[in-house]
Design a protein that fits this description.
This protein has 616 residues and is of the alpha/beta class. The strands form 6 sheets. A 7-stranded mixed β-sheet has the order 3-2-4-5-7-6-12, sandwiched between helices. A 5-stranded mixed β-sheet has the order 9-11-10-13-14, with helices on both faces. It has a 5-stranded antiparallel β-sheet with strand order 21-22-23-24-25. The chain is elongated.
Length: 616
């Protein structure tokens, strides 16, 4: 049975029927056999008659650069940590094979990296500059816009240009990149004459398009979807081949609707098409732009004239994006406009910065494409159940009007119809899951046969939390028809000055009938200064309770939390440097670089809660 990736994806709204993760082992977007890979009509005859090798996307990028370096001594590769293999291993082994004069590291300066590349290209070199993340390309905008893009216009009669420059950068979301590792800024480059902007969908495409970019007489921005680096695997032709730039590819022909996309969202589009054609009996054409600037208008216009309808899908923000440009071009072409039977629609990222907590909702995960367009004003209300499920699972917290205390939102204290109750304040309230705001506070009297124990536990838990998690929220609630008691603690810590944030969530269920305590402790810590390292743990808890008193129950909770933190600290201390490097998402980083005694040791809960380092 194929192993599906663990990428986060949104919970389906009521009208959605297709939200599930992509199965990269079966998607028709990839060539799973050598025969299908070699049937590509864009490949030259010698490649079609050759062999293939199974590669993922980062390996195909590595292969393309290796072939370019071997074929032309003027090709050089440089960037942050490139000689070490790069953040995503795209340059693994190249420094060893071609020497430090051709594959080398640079200082941490995107402006300097691109500026150096422009100078090298102006002198006849084929310069491949790597920007570690597309999110950090902005300091280099002056070099790209005012130098690289304008070079041939400025020195036209001299015949000089910087067409040998290729700027590579990972882009897009992966589910946990948050503000600074999730952006897809391709539309910013598409406003600049003189640049080519390319985004491949697969290993075969990445190799052929990158080789074409390196050989191009135009400076090229080559954007590589991070989510596909390891997920997209297919048979890739060996040897050197070039795929055309600024030429779209029709991946699937259809007659009723044209879907235009590029990069990672093509996989979601393919899955949506499969379901829509089966359920609705329609025929859908799918086009991959490949080069988003200058893009292949004629292929798109020809398709829309045939189908009369078009949807454009991309991961970057909907405002002023590629979708807007494609839609405008379709409507500006008289022949195509007169053939339209519906307005051109867009499915894209929201016009918000990528929040870690809501990244799963921001990346288009198309179930019913029509339901996620600007013609659906009820989108937020349709996503209500998804927000509700997420907030309850994450133990979201909210301040009640007129109160400074945060109250937990969970299924355990839900009254139904969007209302929740809080034992501590003896109140109930309405909660808007999309805005995360509370309103309509009313007094609430807990009616439970366990009310005395619940109130006693709540009081004792308050003291416990105040000592160990000063900024935490907690709650004690009778559940399952008053037969059990749920005990919840959630603490969030955001430490931007120290480049980390974390969340502690613990849930315990006390069963008076069996005198047992069960539950789990979940900790999620994200460190992102010189790396992108995530600690994600889930510790089951099980204990016998000698007497059904608040002090006894709380003592077992304290013991469980202390033991867990000690085990966590011991496990990390025993983790070898090699094993730690295997966990990292970004280079360079070592165990010593991170102050793990503060964020994964015995004082974990106190630090996440913002408290002192007093031991239990």
């Amino acid at each position: 049975m194929p192993r599906l990736p663990t990428r986060l994806y949104s919970t389906a709204p009521p009208s959605a029927r297709l939200n599930f993760p992509t199965d990269f082992s079966t998607t028709p977007i990839l060539n799973h056999t050598a025969q299908s890979a070699l049937q590509n009509i864009e490949l030259p005859p010698d490649i079609q008659n050759g062999t293939t090798k199974r590669m993922n996307l980062f390996q195909s990028v590595n292969d393309a650069m290796s072939l370019a370096l071997a074929a032309d001594e003027s090709v050089i590769l440089f960037g942050e940590d490139v000689a070490f293999g790069g953040v995503f291993r795209c340059s693994m082994g190249l420094a060893e094979n071609f020497g430090s004069e051709r594959v080398f590291n640079t200082p941490l300066s995107e402006q300097g990296i691109v500026g150096f590349g422009i100078g090298a290209a102006a002198e006849g070199m084929k310069a491949i500059a790597e920007i570690q993340f597309a999110d950090y390309v902005y300091p280099a905008f002056d070099q790209l816009v005012n130098e690289a893009a304008k070079f041939r216009y400025r020195d036209g009669k001299e015949g000089r240009h910087v067409g040998g420059l290729t700027v590579r950068m990972p882009c897009g979301g992966v589910g946990h990149g948050a503000l600074y590792h999730s952006q897809s800024p391709e539309s910013l480059f598409t406003h600049i004459p003189g640049l080519r902007v390319i985004m491949p969908r697969s290993p075969i495409q990445a190799k052929g398009l990158l080789l074409s970019a390196i050989a191009s007489n135009d400076p090229c921005i080559f954007m590589e979807p991070k989510a596909l680096y390891r997920a997209a695997v297919e048979q890739v032709p060996t040897g050197t081949y070039y795929l055309p730039l600024s030429k779209a590819e029709v991946l699937k022909e259809g007659s009723d609707l044209t879907i235009v996309s590029y990069g990672h969202p093509l996989y979601t589009c393919s899955a949506a098409i499969e379901k829509a054609e089966k359920d609705l009996g329609i025929s859908i054409e799918l086009i991959d732009l490949r080069t988003v600037y200058p893009w292949d208008k004629e292929t798109v216009l020809k398709s829309v004239r045939k189908t009369g309808r078009c949807v454009v899908v991309h991961e970057s923000m909907v405002n002023a994006g590629i979708g807007a440009e494609v839609a405008a071009s379709i409507q500006e072409d008289k022949e195509t406009f007169l053939r339209l039977e519906a307005s051109v629609m867009r499915v894209a990222g929201w016009s918000v910065h990528m929040a870690l907590m809501f990244e799963r909702f921001n990346i288009p995960d198309v179930a019913n494409i029509k339901a996620l367009t600007i013609e659906t004003p009820t989108l937020v209300s349709q996503l209500g159940p998804a927000f509700e499920k997420y907030n309850e699972e994450q133990f979201a917290t909210v301040k009640l009007p007129g109160s400074s205390q945060h109250v937990i939102i969970s299924s355990h204290n839900s009254l139904g119809d969007g209302r929740y109750y809080d034992v501590e304040s003896s109140s109930s309230f309405a909660f808007d899951h999309s805005t995360q705001k509370a309103s309509a506070v009313q007094s609430y009297v807990l009616e439970s046969s366990q009310s005395d124990l619940v109130k006693s536990l709540s009081k004792s838990l308050g003291s416990h939390v105040k000592e160990h998690y000063p900024n935490a929220s907690y709650g004690v609630y009778p559940i399952e028809n008053d037969s059990k008691i749920a005990i919840l603690v959630v603490a969030n810590k955001y430490s931007p000055n120290n480049f980390w944030n974390g969340r502690w969530r613990s849930l315990y269920i006390f069963d008076p009938t069996s005198s047992s305590l069960s539950g789990s402790i979940k900790v999620d810590v994200h460190y992102y200064e010189d790396g992108n390292v995530r600690l994600l743990t889930n510790k089951p808890v099980s204990a016998s309770i000698s007497s059904a008193s608040a002090s006894t129950i709380l003592r077992e909770i304290t013991i469980a939390e202390k033991k867990y933190q000690e085990e966590l600290n011991k496990g990390f201390n025993n983790l070898s440097e090699g094993a730690f490097k295997g966990l990292r998402r970004q280079l360079p980083i070592t165990r010593q670089k991170i102050e793990w005694d503060k964020i994964s040791g015995y004082r974990l809960g106190q630090d996440i809660g913002g408290g002192s380092s007093n031991k239990r």
